[in-house]
């Protein structure tokens, strides 16, 4: 790689883009919901319960239907996961995380299409629409 003025200009633009992302409402909402979720004692208890049930199930999962209480243990794992997922703070965090990921996916898509429409961008989201060009983080820079 040749380091010249163009390289430094790209580096400066990259820093401006990063600053725009970390000051976006989408990122702020993501951080707030993550902090609220991480600070919640109920969420910690639900995570611990889910982890405990998951570990119990993993011990017998290899034996499948032949393991005693296989179905009951499988059901306990699903119920503990559902309780965790339905917690208000976890659900809010997941929505904020998805919103922020969509912002990052849109930025990546725009960068790639600026270079060439032939570049494929793995957005990681099967429902990601490449036709939607809005910048949810209100990035104007």
What does the model show?
It is a single chain. This protein is mainly alpha-helical. Helices cover about 70% and strands about 0% of the residues. The chain is built from five helices and no strands. The radius of gyration is 21 Å and the shape is elongated. The two termini are about 25 Å apart.
Mean pLDDT, nearest integer? Answer: 88
SSE order, one letter for each helix or strand:
HHHHH
As a whole number of angstroms, the C-alpha radius of gyration is 21 Å
Number of helices: 5
| Total DSSP E strands | 0
Q: What's the overall geometry?
A: elongated
Provide the structure class: mainly alpha
Measured between the Cα atoms of the first and last residue, the distance is: 27 Å
Low-confidence spans:
132-137
Main sheet attributes: strand count, strand direction, barrel closure: none
What fraction of the residues are assigned to beta strands by DSSP?
under 5%
Q: What's the SSE blueprint?
A:
Blueprint: H1 5-22, H2 25-39, H3 41-61, H4 70-86, H5 88-115
Helix pairs in contact: 2-5, 3-4
Can you give keywords for this protein?
elongated, mainly alpha, 141 residues
Can you summarize this structure?
This protein is mainly α. 70% of the residues lie in helices and 0% in strands.
């Amino acid at each position: 790689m040749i380091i010249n003025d163009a390289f430094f200009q790209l580096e400066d633009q990259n820093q401006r883009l990063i600053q725009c992302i970390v000051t976006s409402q989408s990122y702020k909402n993501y951080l707030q919901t993550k902090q609220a979720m991480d600070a919640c004692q109920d969420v910690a208890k639900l995570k611990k319960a889910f982890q405990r049930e998951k570990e119990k199930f993993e011990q017998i999962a290899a034996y499948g239907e032949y393991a005693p209480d296989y179905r009951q243990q499988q059901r306990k794992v699903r119920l503990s996961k559902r309780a965790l997922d339905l917690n208000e703070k976890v659900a809010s965090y997941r929505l904020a995380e998805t919103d922020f990921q969509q912002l990052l996916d849109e930025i990546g898509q725009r960068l790639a299409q600026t270079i060439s429409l032939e570049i494929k961008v793995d957005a990681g989201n099967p429902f990601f629409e490449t036709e939607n060009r809005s910048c949810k983080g209100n990035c104007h820079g």
